[in-house]
Amino acid sequence: MPPSNNAAVLPHAKSHPLQIHPALYPSAGPDQVIIKVSALAINPADHMVQSMGDDLFPSTYPYILGNDVAGTVVEVGSSVTAFKPGDRALALTIGSTPGEGGFQEYVCVKTNVVARIPDEVSFAQAAVLPLGFATAASGLYVPGYLELELPTVAAAEPMGKTVLIWAGASSVGSNAIQLARASGYDVFTTCSPRNFEYCTTLGAERVFDYRSPTVVEDLVAAFKGRTCAGGFAIFPGSEECVIDVMAEIEGEKVVVCAMAVAAEKKAREDVRVKEMFGGSLRTSELAGYLYHEFLPEALRTGKFRCVPEPLVVGHGLGSIQGAVDRLKEGGISAQKVVVTL
């Protein structure tokens, strides 16, 4: 008989607070694993879906939110050979069925977005990675976006090109800086001055104050004599500044936008603009390499860090609504809200 399962459920559109209810124990398909969740992280999409409901996108209710989990593999599907029960793992939980939402005790996940984590990485630390890592990797590597060279754990050959990452202290930005450096690219990024050192420790060569009235001019001047590999605009509205920079420098004049709406309409004759979905990596052949080969070894060797740092705000499913509200309030910088189970 399977274990009992419980979930923090959105019973209907725009409902608040989340309701704690028994949930069906998920069934693993051939290429899936079931993970007993020990920690989960909160993302802006969680409070956006809760507050906007079908105004954001049509959903089927009851709905289980949650994209970032870490825990222990307890079951594997019939075709799975890369994982076994007892493996410590992190996973990207984006699905259209209740069994695939992260805000529950047991979750079912496709193995291409599951990565083993070393013993020295806590579940709370690991939970900050999945969606930020996937979004960053989608923008940097998936065909149709920036299409950079893939990252390696060994020292990468210098590409001689520079990537502009707007919002380097964000979850996506923190992952994007590390990935771009592991691919051999130099990185320019933006953030608030209090996070300059943080972004530098992740590998950014130059860091700029995004609120400076001369930030575009400063970036254009910094790119003089360099070849650009493209720009990554992570927050809504930032794409305009990145486009302005791309229009004035040498190299790939393409901007990938992670959270922008109708950003492609802002493209210019000499600057291409691409909108992307953070879960694009799930359907890419690159996912297996990034989650199964690069990330586990990079974590083990210290090549890749679990950042932003986890801000653990509670324990148990009953703490999730407060965590979602805490993120929605704002004021969190270079941290990611986490709940342990």
Automatic annotation (TrEMBL):
Keywords: Oxidoreductase. This is Chaperonin 10-like protein. Coiled coil: none annotated. GO terms for molecular function: oxidoreductase activity, acting on NAD(P)H. It comes from Cercophora scortea. It comes from the Eukaryota. Belongs to the zinc-containing alcohol dehydrogenase family. Residues 14-313 form the Enoyl reductase (ER) domain.
